[in-house]
Design a protein that fits this description.
Helix content: 40-55%
Strand order of the largest sheet: 1-2-3-4-8-7-6-5
Number of domains: 2
Shape: elongated
Structural class: alpha+beta
Number of helices: 4
Number of strands: 8
Distance between the termini: 38 Å
């Protein structure tokens, strides 16, 4: 019964995240806990099933239910990524391009040190986003803007330089050359269009 409750909760949170373009970050935390619980239940049920312990057939059926739930949640996760991209093209790009234009007009004030750019923005343009940026050695500009729901560590990157390194296994994923030297595993960007990336 607990397994069914966790599976239903997992599908519900995954569906909510997929349908809401930018849900409250608490939903992502709940979803992560449910993923961990499902994977844990899967290992326990597979252990009981492979050892042919009491009720092994029911545990085999439970393992199949968990695998189906995880596959469905993976599909919902993919849908959420597609909805982010769709939102960006239909709504977000206008706001974010206005922010980049303000930063570009104040480019002389930027330095090579990654710092907050909130001083350039009135609240109507984007000060609530906590924008960061810097200039690069080649004269290009890097501007980081979080998602509208302020999900920590996720957002959009505007980068007009030539330092992005493509991932040979997934040509839509990039690593920024300056980040690759310090820690390549932490800085991965999904290309959206032109100079825009999602992280």
């Amino acid at each position: 019964m607990i397994l069914v409750s966790v599976a239903v909760a997992a599908v519900t949170t995954g569906t909510w995240i997929a349908l809401s373009v930018f849900p409250d970050p608490l939903w992502y935390g709940c979803d992560a806990v449910l993923w961990i619980l499902l994977v844990g239940f899967l290992f326990v049920n597979l252990f009981i099933f492979t050892r042919r312990l009491n009720g092994w057939s029911a545990h085999g059926a439970a393992a199949v239910l968990i695998v189906i739930t995880l596959l469905f949640k993976s599909l919902l996760f993919y849908c959420a990524i597609c909805r982010h991209k769709e939102w960006f093209f239909h709504t977000g790009i206008r706001r974010y391009e206005a922010i980049v234009n303000v930063v570009a007009s104040n480019k002389a004030s930027l330095t090579s040190k990654h710092s907050s750019l909130d001083v350039f923005f009135p609240k109507s343009v984007g000060a609530d986003l906590h924008i960061w940026g810097h200039t690069n050695a080649d004269g290009s500009m890097t501007v980081e803007m979080p998602f509208p729901n302020h999900l920590r560590g996720h957002g959009y990157l505007y980068y007009d330089g030539h330092g992005m390194i493509v991932n040979p296994r997934n040509t839509n994923m990039y690593t920024l050359l300056e980040d690759a030297e310090s820690n390549p595993s932490l800085f991965v960007y999904r290309h959206i269009t032109n100079c825009w990336y999602e992280f």
